[in-house]
Design brief:
Layout: H1 10-18, H2 26-36, E1 41-44, H3 51-64, E2 76-79, H4 83-96, E3 105-108, H5 114-121, E4 127-130, H6 132-140, E5 151-154, H7 157-162, H8 166-174, E6 181-186, H9 191-200, E7 205-208, E8 219-225, H10 229-240, E9 247-251, H11 255-267, E10 272-275, H12 281-292, E11 298-301, H13 303-306, E12 314-319, H14 326-333, E13 343-349, H15 354-364, E14 369-370, H16 382-421
Parallel strand pairs: 1-6, 1-7, 2-4, 2-5, 3-4, 5-6, 8-13, 8-14, 9-11, 9-12, 10-11, 12-13
Helix pairs in contact: 2-3, 3-4, 6-8, 14-15
């Protein structure tokens, strides 16, 4: 199937070929024809599946088929959870619309100067890409009107709700025309997403391309058991020195942990940087740019900060700290194996984290293989862990038997006492 066969015109198709796109991904093939027909859509798709093009190509085609608007207010609004994702969508849209020189795109996100954003909004805007919080600020200042919106896109809607943007989203939607087209993209479709869709969409068509529990067949998943964090660092150093490693993203559970680990790896000679929510926008943008240019080989990040990073060169995703939620494990390892490439997802696990591995394996429906590095063998292992579980289960059974026996003795005693009274 080609882009032309699913309805993309030759002007945009030419730009896609220049950008290196050969044929549509499954999410693009399923979504684009429906979007071109003007339907409201709820699309369940993972990051890295090509969903940006799935909603942006129909938008560009719609704009190209209409007379140039004299209205300075945007016709298309794309809401995203993070600044990084908003900037990536803007960059991708500019590439797709390279043959549309009149096209104007504005990006409204937190952490960037108000003055520049106000200046961008003072001119005609065709497509507005924004994070909810900063857009609300501009709306309250009367710097932008959404009265001309014809297409509304919510990208990574589940993450926006997780980050507490539900009220902002509802306020934004209320300020757009009711007859707009709405497309909602989310890795998962739960009750909160369903409630939101019911409020803002008109008879939406559901498209489910992937499950959040997908096995990532192109990603090799491995466990390395460690005795403590010092042992984890030694294992990590070994992994980062592998010849097969191009670039790696390492996940920590805290911002402080990300800084500390990045400093440690830097002292060990790695080109490394940290990425987390305490960094200002300039620092975050510079770090992402350095990663894209391969000026840094290793990125140490927290979950929220890494959300939306789409860099093909990341060959390894490493869980230095395991996530609390099993679903976040799937999102993390999805940072590697992008654009059909193979990837490696490695998890460093201490005895205290083993319960998280059981939860993750149950969630993804597969057992993650365990590997041992010669010279860095752990004192603990999956086998010893499983045996300890069996011992614990036996102990619980013995306790239950003792309790039952004591209850039986108590019942007999009470029965005898009752009979003596008679």
């Amino acid at each position: 199937m080609s882009f032309e066969k699913i309805g993309i015109n030759s002007n945009i198709f030419s730009a896609l070929k220049t950008a290196g796109f050969i044929s549509p991904t499954p999410v693009q093939e399923a979504t684009i024809p429906q979007a071109l027909s003007g339907k409201d859509l709820i699309v369940s798709a993972q990051t890295g599946s090509g969903k940006t093009a799935a909603f942006m190509l129909p938008v560009l085609q719609m704009l190209s088929q209409k007379p140039k608007s004299n209205n300075i207010n945007p016709q298309v609004l794309v809401l995203t959870p993070t600044r990084e994702l908003a900037l990536q969508i803007t960059k991708a849209t500019a590439a797709y619309g390279i043959n549309m020189p009149w096209l104007r795109i504005a990006t409204i996100v937190g952490g960037m100067p108000y003055r520049n954003q106000i200046k961008a909004l003072s001119k005609r805007v065709d497509i507005l890409v924004a994070t909810p919080g900063r857009l609300i600020d501009q709306m309250r200042s009367n710097k932008v009107s959404l009265a001309n919106i014809q297409t509304l896109v919510l990208d990574e809607a589940d993450r926006m709700l997780d980050m507490g943007f539900i009220e902002d989203i509802e306020t934004i939607v209320k300020n757009t025309p009711k007859d707009r087209q709405t497309m909602l993209f989310s890795a998962t479709i739960d009750e909160s997403i369903a409630r939101l869709a019911k409020k803002m969409m008109n008879n939406p068509q559901h498209i489910a391309l992937t499950s959040s529990k997908q096995k990532h067949d192109n990603i090799t998943q491995k466990l390395f058991y460690a005795d403590n964090n010092e042992h984890k660092v030694k294992l990590l150093n070994h992994v980062l020195n592998e010849s097969s490693l191009d670039q790696a993203i390492i996940f920590t559970s805290t911002k402080k942990g990300a800084d500390k680990l990045a400093e440690c790896l830097s002292e060990n000679g790695f080109a490394v940087a940290a990425l987390h929510g305490d960094m200002n926008q300039r620092q975050r943008t510079r770090t992402i740019s350095q990663l894209q240019k391969k000026q840094i080989r290793v990125l140490v990040a927290t979950d929220i900060a890494a959300r939306g990073i789409d860099i093909n060169g990341i060959s390894h995703a490493v869980n230095f700290d395991l996530p609390m939620q099993a679903e976040d494990y799937v999102h993390r390892i999805g940072r590697t194996g992008r654009a059909g490439r193979n990837g490696s997802a490695l998890s460093l696990v201490t005895n205290e984290e083993k319960h998280k591995i059981r939860r993750i394996e149950k969630y993804i429906g597969q057992t993650i293989s365990t590997e041992i590095i010669e010279g860095l063998e752990p004192k603990i292992s999956r086998t010893s862990h499983d045996n300890s579980n069996k011992k614990t289960n036996t102990e619980i059974l013995l306790i239950e038997m003792k309790l039952r026996l004591e209850i039986t003795h108590l019942e007999n005693f009470l029965l005898q006492a009752k009979q003596k009274k008679k």
